Amino acid sequence: MLENSGLVGYAQEVLKETDQSCFVQTAKQLHVRIQKATESLKTFHPSADPCFDEFVLDTSKEETLLKEMCFGGVPDPPLIDLSHSKVYNEASICWRLPDDHLPTDHHILECRKLGGPSQSPSLEGSEDCGVWRATDKVYGSSAGVHDLEPDSLYAFRVRSCRNSMFSPYSPEVSFHTPPAPIFNFLFSDKCGFSPERLILNSRRDTVESVAGMAFLLAAERLQTGSYIGLDYIIGDTGISQGRHYWAFKVEPYSYMVKVGVASDTKLIEWFHNPRDTSSPRYDHDSGHDSGSEDACYELSQPFTLITLGMGKLIIPKASSSSSVSNANVSSGDPGNRVLPMPQHLGICLDYDAHRVYFYDANTMRCLFERQVDCSGTMFPAFGLMGSGKVQLEEFINAKKLTF
């Protein structure tokens, strides 16, 4: 190829020749040399072999790495766990991630207020309503929120973050805050407490009713039947002003439990009533539909109790000073006063307004309300008969995240 490049240079010089005789003589020789060079190029072969048949490249490791790479950078949205989330003195919101999720860096919980007391339209249009407020980064699967307004509806949602990429929001869930500030108390193991038939746990937030050894020993003399009275236990703190709310759980297997509020004077009367001579009749209601007791309910009394048992809740007979969420309860059919027992029951005492309210604590639906005489110190009261168990709602002491 270098020889041929020299031939080209020689041809360029020949073309510059101005003498005709010299040009003809050299052009003939140049023509012959070009023919020979053209023929030699037809049989030209490079010295290097361009074939890679014997070369083998192993890419198995790289293929495996490529298959393991995940190009879906957006994490899947978490789901708020309603079975473990609740709102009491604070809000405790728990969530779970999909089963096949990849590790996430952190989560962001958001909350907004949907409505104020009694879902007033004027409050719903306020500045605080409808605005999502985000917490700081949460590195676990739950978060606590405090400073929520009472008797208000709040919506919650959460999303995950991985490598600075956020997942879509979880479906919104809503919770209704209690209608009043939470009343913090424990069961009293002093005033009228019967350790023979009532068993308190060490934390004094759970009480269980049992027969008692004395009753079992006396039962061998019984052949036809025996009267079993109510064993009362109260809270260790009383209420003398303001509006307060507390919640608890009555086990569905409970034989009979009466819950509500009672004044200190009424409790003294109950606790000093001898067990062996007390009448099996309710103070003002024999349970018969004779109508003789109805007039007593028209008067404000220093106590109000409702009955739970066998997985049912019994609404007391209606009066002019009481109201219930179900209009059919006011009818004469006793079956209309029987409701399914809520998983958690809430009581709200408005001392200044002389009224007591009973709620389904999970939905904050008012089941029953009645006027009550708050002339003295009012105490949460619980009466148990037969086998039964009552557990106070536990305070939420999670890490506080303020909205």
TrEMBL record:
The species this protein was found in: Characodon lateralis
Residues of the B30.2/SPRY domain: 165-401
Boundaries of every COS domain copy: 15-72
Residue ranges that the Swiss-Prot or TrEMBL entry lists as coiled coil: none
Gene3D superfamilies from the UniProt entry: 2.60.120.920, Immunoglobulins
The family this protein is said to belong to: Belongs to the TRIM/RBCC family.
Name of this protein: Uncharacterized protein
PROSITE patterns per record: B302_SPRY, COS, FN3
CDD domains per record: FN3
Keywords assigned: Coiled coil
InterPro entries: B30.2/SPRY (IPR001870), B30.2/SPRY_sf (IPR043136), ConA-like_dom_sf (IPR013320), COS_domain (IPR017903), E3_ligase_FN3/SPRY (IPR050617), FN3_dom (IPR003961), FN3_sf (IPR036116), Ig-like_fold (IPR013783)
All copies of domain Fibronectin type-III, residue ranges: 74-180
